[in-house]
Amino acid sequence: MSTRTDDAAAPDAVPGRLILLTTSHRVAPGLLSWPAWQVLRSADLVVCPDPAHPQLPYLREAGVSVEHAAPSGRDLVGLTGGGRTVVVIPPGDGDPALTDELARLAGSGRVRMPELELLPASYDLPGGRLLDLVQVMDRIRRECPWTSTRDAEGLVKYLIEEAYELVEAIEEGDREAYREELGDVLLQVVLHARIAQDDADEPFSIDDVAGGLVDKLIHRHPHVFGTETAATPEEVHEHWQRTKAQEKRRESVTEGVPLNQPALALAAKLASRARGAGLPLPREDGDAVGDRLLALAARAQGEGVDPEAALRAAARAYRGVLREAEERA
């Protein structure tokens, strides 16, 4: 490998092209863009400092010759002399030292620089960072003394706490907290799926969870993925309820309603099921406090109001009243 770096002699002093070809580890190796394959096939020299780079077997199969070397930025500039094109395939996490050196050389004004180009050869698909999350969680589950000993039952309280913190962020309109709390809930989902993967009798993975969800969404949206039509939210809801009923084959409208959810949410859910099936709703003339609360929750549900959210909003307002009263006192 020639490493001429002087700027005196011609024709080697004629600047060429230096291309940094970046790839994503979240995309299967070998799935490169057409411009990337064109550059790789036409380049005068392809250099990859990482002999274990996942792209190398596919480049060899395609007849692209790659030199395993780690030349400096100055050496690479010299290799482009005479109008040559040099392609560098950095490691998957990039090569900040190389890019910094090239930037210093270009800014020095003392080196005749080639045409520099950053060419993404593969791009992350939407959701690509979820693959990183799965890999990170897998390692934590294997190597962390705390996480490696957890079970699903012991994590339930954290799942509930994170869900409530997410609800609070949404209702308070805090966008930064909203994003963070979504991540915390997602963490719980991925962690529970990773724990389930270790089950000796009935294991399943995050892919099983996602696959089942995809199938369910497609089946319950025939107006999107099938031949049915729905022009209004009400028609969508009707499709959803009908397909759910076909899937579950429930004998009672109360089946599938978790009884350990907050009381107002439970009351509203039962009222929603009853209203949809044309069954009796609770009356507001009961004497017991519980009966009156049940009827009030059913009334709120019928008016399109979430009784849990409404009571939380009222409680927050009342908290403000109490604080004002304390300040005056």
UniProtKB/TrEMBL annotation:
The cross-references to Pfam families, in alphabetical order and at most eight, read:
MazG
GO MF term set: nucleoside triphosphate diphosphatase activity
| Keywords associated with the record | Hydrolase
Origin: domain of life? Bacteria
Q: Does the keyword Transmembrane apply?
A: no
Q: What class of enzyme is it?
A: hydrolase
Instruction: Indicate the segments forming the NTP pyrophosphohydrolase MazG-like domain, all copies.
Output: 153-225
EC no.?
Answer: 3.6.1.9
NCBIfam families, per database record: PRK12334.1-4 (NF008988)
- This chain belongs to the protein called Nucleoside triphosphate pyrophosphohydrolase
- Species this protein is from: Streptantibioticus parmotrematis
